[in-house]
Amino acid sequence: MLAQSACEVLAAFKAQALTPSSYLAACLDQILRFNPKINAIAAMDIEGAIACATAATQRWQDACPMGPLDGLPIGVKDLQNTKGLLTTHGSIRARGYIPESDMPMVARLRAAGAIILAKTNVPEMGAGGNSRNQVWGATGNPFDANLIAGGSSGGSAAALAANFLPLCTGSDTGGSLRMPAALCGVVGYRPSVDVIAHPTRPLGWSGISVLGPMARTLDDLTLMLDVCQGYDADDPLTEPSVTGRFAELPSTDLKDLRVGFSEDFGSAPVEQSIRETFRARLEVLRPQVKECRAVDLDLGDMDRCFDILRAESFGVAFGEAVAQDPDSFGAHIKDNVALGQTMSLADRGWAHAEQTKILRKFNALMAEFDVIVLPTSPVSPFAWTEPYAEVIDGQKMDIYYRWLALCYRGSLTGGPSITLPCGRDAAGMPFGLQVLGPLRGDESLLCAAKAMEGLFELSEQTTRPLANLERLPHSDVDLKSIVTHPADLSAGPAAPNAALRTAV
């Protein structure tokens, strides 16, 4: 039952072969049995979820579901406000914060009938690609609990791979959706900047950070995306939504696809074993498509551009709070704020101009291709006890997020990108293929990704790998050993002005 897709579960609800109550009970049993091994789940609302499932069960029996996700339990990333449910941001400052309202994306999911069962673990304030913090501890990979699940949506990715939940939310600035999806063998989608309203973004006119869905299959992902997509007046980059925009996408034939590829997105460091796995996946794809050729993705000074755009966002979100109480923040947040303080208005102007040039160069490339494929991660998952990958292919990283360059360089275009599970790497861990599309080309990218998913399902080498939690040993180092300020589960609702800002 738990290995079924969200679409299959909903079909079973409709056929009355399964009830939301019995499905929720199975999810809770899976979480209670196996979450201690990977620590993907943070706060839960078990009592509220049971009540919601009971009501959904009755609605399905009456053939009157309240929406397309009625009775489906989901996980919400712990950076995203959930009414009445602890939202800590992985921060000691918010270990008892209970929001009084949902953020708009969560509200859309709830209105569609989704049951908000759990929050999923993140790095502190979403900073970095390793989901660990002093409130909940670290999230281990469902394929090897000693290794990272990625971040900042690592708890969501791990929960999906572990069959805890059928759908989870994520967000993505520099790969926070795509990286954990790749490392855990699930699907993560970063939509174009106009698709899902993100009114909590500190800089409303900067689209570097977006919200997105995470799932185990493309059909599940587009089901969730169609619910999440939509306009909000407080996000000036969104556009009025079209109901059903992603509900029934047309099929795409692989033989019509023009595919560009790059191993390193303009010479980013990538381990040789990852390059070899990527080349093997290309050999599976190449005979099936119209065209498959190398593309030069050296689009400009992408690293410096991202550094500045990220630093200005972190400075606005956290600068004042860091100045007032630096001891309540970890090194990653303080380093980002400090980096921003070294930059000038001229630097900011340069970065926005450079991002514009990068987009226009990318647009010119996309006139020749339908999609561009590349690896998602430059390395196989490493020990969660290491904050980040410090050396890749002999090159030392100059800042903690530099190892995410394969992802964050793509963020600069503002366009859509998706990570597809595509077998395992040389170390036996999940390998994720990243697929880029043109700005506002979400439908065409998703159609191409669906066709690729169908191809990859045909071979054991490329099909989505499955975690075996029964045989998974606990991490050698206790995943909660780094907790210094555990979540305050006795806290009451917070005052409206108590909300934390977020940069991602």
What does this molecule look like?
This protein has 504 residues and is an alpha+beta fold. 34% of the residues lie in helices and 15% in strands. It has 13 helices and 17 strands. The protein has helices spanning 6-14, 20-38, 46-61, 104-111, 154-161, 178-184, 218-228, 272-285, 302-324, 331-341, 345-366, 405-411, 442-456; strands at residues 41-44, 73-77, 115-120, 132-133, 137-138, 140-141, 144-148, 167-172, 187-190, 210-215, 258-261, 291-294, 371-375, 391-392, 395-396, 417-424, 430-436. The strands form four sheets. The chain has an eleven-stranded mixed β-sheet with strand order 1-3-2-8-10-9-16-17-13-11-12, with helices on both faces. A hairpin with a 5-residue loop joins β16 and β17. It is globular, with a radius of gyration of 21 Å. The mean pLDDT is 96.
What keyword list fits this structure?
11-stranded mixed sheet, 504 residues, alpha+beta, 34% helix, single chain
Summary?
The chain is α+β, with helices and mostly antiparallel strands. It is built from 13 helices and 17 strands.
